[in-house]
Structure to design on (228 residues):
């Protein structure tokens, strides 16, 4: 079991290949997009803010399990999301998210393999996606944000691209009954000052979503493995 978990956390550029890109395309850009347009009437603003290269990390706020496939569906590149390692213990889910390009992360202790995998993603044509909140939040609030995502960007010399999401928390089934709005912000340039990067991300997410940041005393070490 230990060997299997290690396998799903350490990836190389060759694994972010055309077959996983094709699987993402079929599942997200076709399958999910039909649902997003037919049921949720999705609107996307700010596509012009997306960098032409892949030397950045897509960092949305997080409301629902719909968020990762939705980001993949609207993005011009394939996106590799971090996923908590426990999901890779479940056979079908492991297969599904593996083929969608996700890789395992221990949220309590960031392993060197995570940093290496992010570097490998930069060497591929994919882009990394991660949620600075670490887990799903509630509408109207932004909580649980630490400097972990900014620390990873610093270690890998990546910019940060804030993405504001509203409406994915409302589960809808009837056609045109939901409303999702995605607003893509301006890139935050690479910086060694992780507190400044976190502050800039929060400011943009508040503006993009209308949500309010609520500071909480959660531990940096527990949530992001102490990456500052």
């Amino acid at each position: 079991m230990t060997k299997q978990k290690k396998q799903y956390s350490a990836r190389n550029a060759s694994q972010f290949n055309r077959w996983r890109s094709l699987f993402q395309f079929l599942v997200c850009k076709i399958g999910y997009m039909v649902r997003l347009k037919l049921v949720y009437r999705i609107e996307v603003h700010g596509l012009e803010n997306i960098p032409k290269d892949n030397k950045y990390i897509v960092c949305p706020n997080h409301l629902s399990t719909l968020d990762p496939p939705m980001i993949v569906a609207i993005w011009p590149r394939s996106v590799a999301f971090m996923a908590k390692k426990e999901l890779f213990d479940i056979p079908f889910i492991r297969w599904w998210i593996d083929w969608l390009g996700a890789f395992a992360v221990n949220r309590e202790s960031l392993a060197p393999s995570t940093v290496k995998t992010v570097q490998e993603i930069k060497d591929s044509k994919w882009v990394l996606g991660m949620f600075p909140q670490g887990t799903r939040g509630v509408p109207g609030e932004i909580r649980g944000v630490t400097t972990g995502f900014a620390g990873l960007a610093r270690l890998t010399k990546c910019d940060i691209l804030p993405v504001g999401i509203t409406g994915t928390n409302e589960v809808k089934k009837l056609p045109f009954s939901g409303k999702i709005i995605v607003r893509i912000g301006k890139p935050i340039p690479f910086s060694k000052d992780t507190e400044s990067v976190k502050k800039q991300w929060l400011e943009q997410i508040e503006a993009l979503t209308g949500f309010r940041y609520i500071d909480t005393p959660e531990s940096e070490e527990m949530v992001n493995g102490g990456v500052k």
About this structure: The radius of gyration is 17 Å.
